[in-house]
Amino acid sequence: MSKTCQYFMALQSPWTYLGHARLVALARQYGVQVEPKPFDLGKVFSVSGGLPLAKRAPQRQAYRLAELARWSAFLQIPMNVQPKFFPVSPDAAAKLVLATRLALGGDVALELAQAVMRGLWAEEKNIGDDETLVQIANSCELDGRMLIKSANTASVQAEYDRNTDDASAASVFGSPWYIVDGEGFWGQDRLDFVERAFTRV
Q: Residue 79 — φ and ψ, nearest 5°?
């Protein structure tokens, strides 16, 4: 039986974007099934002591920008550390990825999530806009119009809420967050440890 990795992801998070392709590649390398779980990071922040970016001290905000630039250069992943459409409401994008997972499976949802995050962090796209999301989904050879309609249903909203509840129950307090064999790992800079967890028998 292959391992699974629960992947709690906030699509507006630059750190999730920086780690996404590496997680997918590692999972493919080790035969691990990734379960993408988009969740409401703002709600998790409110119960775990986290602060939205705008409320953080100036020195923390400045260091975040420096770190993003370092990681972008180190990983050779294109990134505008201060994109035009940020901060942005993540709900529409999260529910689009959820609708895709429910209809087409986790692998397709992961591919779409990559395109959505690249849109925000490298292509100056507004991922809070339904029409933009339709175009991104279409670029992945999906039926964006159908998926955005599905994303706006009560069943997808319920799944989004469930993921957020699951995140709180699992003591998640940031994104990305990976859970392998019941062990949690916070941040794309923990992927070396995630890889070790993938190799455990």
A: -155, 135
